[in-house]
Amino acid sequence: EYPSLLRILPDAPTILYVRGALLPHDALISVVGSRKHSQYAVSCLEKIIPDLIRSGYGIVSGGAYGIDSIAHELALKNKGYTAAVFGAGIDVYYPPSNRGLFDKIVEQGGALISQFPLGTPAEPFNFPIRNAVVAGMSRGTLIAEAGEDSGTLITARLALEANHDVFVIPADINRE
Question: What is the pLDDT of residues 30-74, one digit of tens each?
Fold first, then answer.
């Protein structure tokens, strides 16, 4: 059941811990972006994610505040598949306030995924490692918004290094 696109990467994790169900195919798009998102980014995702779901794609993201959570919620709202990749053990809900979202992902047929053993705390250095799994198991990565020194741009770079497509929502010309 190991994700086929992730399997071919030279630095793929040896083990993935999964709560829920992995898709039996690799039609996944990762959606990542800023924790401090704009309504513009949300409105764009409200148009894009339902079309991706209708086209048979599942959504992968990191379960963080902001764009990650919105992507998961929109996938669920549109009765699509979604997987949250943790920067901690799959028994360590981070951020804790997303516990309800994480439980709903599993209840509706999605997955919580981590390469970290149970009980591993959410440490800052785990998140770039998590981002490699998000990018590596997806056919492409959609960037909704990103700061100059953000984890989102790390994910974009990792997707490109994995020879996966990166898509970017055009910036709102009224914002920095």
Answer: 999 888 888 999 999 999 999 999 999 999 999 999 999 999 999
Question: pTM for this structure?
Answer: 0.93
Integer angstrom CA distances of residue 109 from 1, 20, 21, 104? 15, 7, 6, 9
Q: Which pLDDT tens digit goes with each residue over 83-110?
A: 999 999 999 999 999 999 999 999 999 9
Which long-range contacts (C-beta less than 8 Å, at least 24 apart) are formed by 132-135? 132/9, 132/11, 132/158, 133/6, 133/13, 133/16, 133/85, 134/30, 134/32, 134/60, 134/61, 134/62, 134/85, 135/30, 135/159, 135/162, 135/164
Per-residue tokens: 58: 């599942």
Q: Say how far apart CA 58 and CA 49 lie, in whole Å.
A: 9
